[in-house]
Structures are given as C-alpha cells and as structure tokens.
Design brief:
Layout: H1 3-33, H2 42-54, E1 58-63, E2 87-93, E3 102-107, E4 127-129, E5 132-134, H3 138-157, E6 160-162, E7 166-171, H4 179-186, E8 194-196, E9 204-208, E10 210-219, H5 234-255, E11 271-278, E12 288-297, H6 303-319, E13 330-338, E14 341-342, H7 348-361, E15 367-370, E16 384-386, E17 391-392, E18 400-402, H8 403-421, E19 423-425
C-alpha cells in the first residue's frame, strides 16, 4: 500500500476507533457484568452470539459435547464440568477475496472473585474510575475480546471491509483446561494466522510455560483428639506432601537456569496449592484432606514427562513417611495438561503486528516471557500471536484494565487486520 494511502487508512481507522470507543467501553462493561465463572459461561456466550449476528457474521454456537473431545490426545480432564453446558462461539466473516485469513480468539471464562468485601468495588459492577475499568475479567481477558470485536467494527466504520476470511472466536475453559480453544480446532476452524489479545501490556508473548493440574486425596485415621497419638491427621500428612513438592519445585528451578528461553527468569516453574479441603470436626484427627495443585513445565518438556515427575515426587515423599507408605494418597489429574509453547521469531504475521503496534503506540514492539499459559499453544501450523492491552491484577482483587491502553490496542489490532487480510472499500 502506498504511503499516502496507508496514512489515509491509518487516520480513518484511528478516527473510527475513537468514535466507537464510548460504545466499546459500554460493551466491555456489559461483558464484565456477566459473572462467567466456570460452568456459568453460557449466558454471556449467547449474548455475544446475538451481537455477532447483528453485525452480519455467520455464527456457530456449539458445545464441547458436540465434538469428540475425549478422543483428542491434547484434551484435558474436565473434572465433572458438563460438556454440554460449555458453549463455544465462532463468528465468521467470509468475503469474496483472496486476502490472508485470520483467527481472532479470546476466552470469556473468569476465575472466582473471592470475598466481595475485599474488593474496592463490587467485582462484577464494571466500575469505571480514573481511566480504568475495575471488575473480574475486565483485564483477563474481556478487554481483549472487546478489542478484537471493535477493531473489525472500526474497519467497517471507516468505510472498509477485510479482504480475507476472519473467524472471531469466544471460548471457555482457558483458565482450567484449554479445551475450548482445542474444540475450535477440532470443529475445523483454521487460518493463515491467529491473534489472541490476552492482557500482555501490548507486548508479544515470545514463550510460555506449560501447566499441570493435579489433586491429592490424602486419608487419615480419625480418633478423638484426646487420643491423637493413636490416629493420624490427613491434614498433617498433606502438609508433608506440600513440603515435598516445594522442594521438588526448587530443584526444577535450579535446573531451569540452563533453559534457552527462561534461564534468566527467576524461578520460572511455579508450584501452587490453590484449594485445600479437609476434616470434619475440630476435636477429631482429620480423616481426609484434598489438595488441588498446579505446577509449571518449561519448553522442551512434555506434559507426560511432567506428570511422571509429579508421580515420582509423590512416591518419594510417601516412601519416607510411616503412614503414607502404607496408605498412599490418591493422585487425580484434574485439569490442565498444557504444553509449553514458543512463538518463533521471524514470521510475516509478527512483522505486520510489529508495524501496526509501532503506528498505534509510537514505540517498537517488545516481547515477554510468560510463566502462565495461553491458548496460542493449540494453533500449530500457523503463526499464533499473543498480544493485548495493559492492566493490573489478573486473578486478584480489584482486577482492572487501563482504558487508554485498550483504545490503542484496538487501533493496533485494526491496523494488523487491515494489513494482514487486506482491505476493500465498501
């Protein structure tokens, strides 16, 4: 595209993003007001399907039960979440043209908000104050979903249409298994590139760790606390296992200094006990304790290898405990079995994104290393870019997204689409 024509398109898109931004903020607020917790995402997905239909897109709404999910080697356990209730939405724009195709994908599931009284504002109120929107999911990642939708709206408002096929995808299960993104691939959706606008503070995620979820079901021998020495405490046994996994994680991080991607990141392998449940009575030694855990893995290691390492750590910890050696904990794979992933540098899509970012932000595109996971790992065979707005507090109290960052990110995505897919005048 000639420089004068490019400048004209840029200014038209910039003006369109600005013109639509008040509506975009209201759209984002409405999304945040849906408490789309795991297993409760369908109302938001149906609302989004309606919004896509009103924009003239062909809309496919399907559930995880509509595909043979369990047949795929990368599918993760759903832990009693009904497949039929987990809806995915794909909205397709398919022009007559030969422009490059694109997947724009975001997740709409959010993590639990925790005690509401520890928030400064109600967690699903979508409060706007001092240039920020506060609310569970505002940053992670409903802001990015609004950016991909309104980037296409800006192209239309500016008097253009993309020249290549685009799939707008809103998925579930990103926070727990990744099965929503996997389902879109199994449904047959492919493109020449994929962009996922996670909240990366407008950097490109160069590499990400993988993650494994597992549950330890520990049992004890309940007796009256007056005779506690004759029984055992499942909670104390669980604490022994937690210490063993903490030591195991330290060993993994000691080896990580030689990793080509994460070698300079301090303690890139994270271990977390996210949920503890146990015991029935304050005056009885606990008969049971369940721990829900998460541990990371680095590029070059497969989930299967990481799972064998978890099994070995557990076996060693139990071997040296007089009760657990005879009464081993049950190990349950309860969610993520996520591969690490690397966004290899040098793709044409990355070059287009870098130019779009520089136009929108006035700075060079930087990359980052992530000790969390994102859905780009599924989009193999195409450049898969993770890039989105800036915010504070994912999974934390007072999670928030910076609205000016969202505005510029929306422009950046619109410019990326314009160059990647091409444009035609309406």
């Amino acid at each position: 595209m000639a420089n004068n024509a490019l400048d004209d398109v840029t200014e038209r898109l910039r003006a369109a993003v600005d013109r639509n931004f008040e509506d975009q903020v209201a759209f984002l607020a409405r999304m945040v007001q849906f408490p789309s917790l795991r297993g409760k995402e369908e109302p938001l997905q149906q609302w989004l399907a309606k919004q896509f239909g009103e924009r003239g897109y062909a809309v496919d709404v399907f559930s995880l039960a509509d595909i043979d999910l369990t047949s795929h080697p990368k599918a993760a356990p759903m832990d009693d979440i009904p497949l039929a209730g987990s809806k995915q939405v794909v909205a397709t724009y398919d022009p007559e043209g030969n422009g490059r195709s694109l997947i724009l994908q975001g997740h709409i599931d959010v993590v639990p908000e925790g005690p509401a009284d520890l928030w400064s504002d109600p967690p699903f109120a979508a409060t706007v104050r001092d240039g920020w929107m506060i609310g569970r999911g505002a940053q992670d990642m409903k802001a990015g979903v609004s950016a991909m939708i309104y980037a296409l709206d800006a192209i239309r408002s500016a008097g253009y249409a993309p020249g290549g096929r685009i799939h707008l995808q809103t998925v579930t299960e990103e926070e727990s298994t990744g099965n929503g993104a996997l389902a879109t691939m199994m449904r047959g959706y492919r493109a020449d590139a994929c962009l996922i606008p996670e909240p990366t503070a407008h950097t490109l995620t160069r590499a990400q760790v993988g993650a494994i979820w597992f549950r330890l079901r520990v049992r004890g021998t309940p007796v009256h606390v007056a005779y506690s020495e004759t029984g055992t405490s499942a909670i104390l046994s669980a604490m022994h296992l937690v210490r063993a996994f903490q030591d195991y994680t330290k060993a993994l991080n000691a080896r990580a200094v030689d990793d080509p991607w994460f070698g300079k990141v301090k303690n890139p392998v994270k271990f977390n006990v996210g949920i503890i449940k146990g015991g029935d009575w304050a005056s009885s030694t606990p008969a049971w304790c369940d721990l829900d855990c998460r541990i990371g893995l680095l590029p070059g290691e497969t989930p299967q290898q990481a799972m064998r390492g978890i099994e070995q750590c557990l076996a060693e910890a139990q071997k040296n405990d007089s009760f657990l050696s005879e009464n081993p904990a049950e190990l349950v794979w309860s969610g993520f079995q996520a591969d690490p992933a690397v966004c290899e540098p040098g793709s044409a899509a990355e070059a287009v994104l870098a130019a779009a970012h520089e136009t929108a932000f006035g700075t060079a595109l930087e990359d980052r290393l992530s000790t969390a996971v994102n859905d780009t790992r599924y989009y193999t065979g195409m450049p898969a870019l993770c890039y989105g707005p800036s915010g504070i507090g994912p999974h934390a109290f007072d999670e928030r997204v910076e609205l000016e960052s969202l505005r510029k990110t929306t422009l950046s995505i619109a410019l990326f689409v314009a160059e990647w897919c091409g444009l035609k005048k309406l």
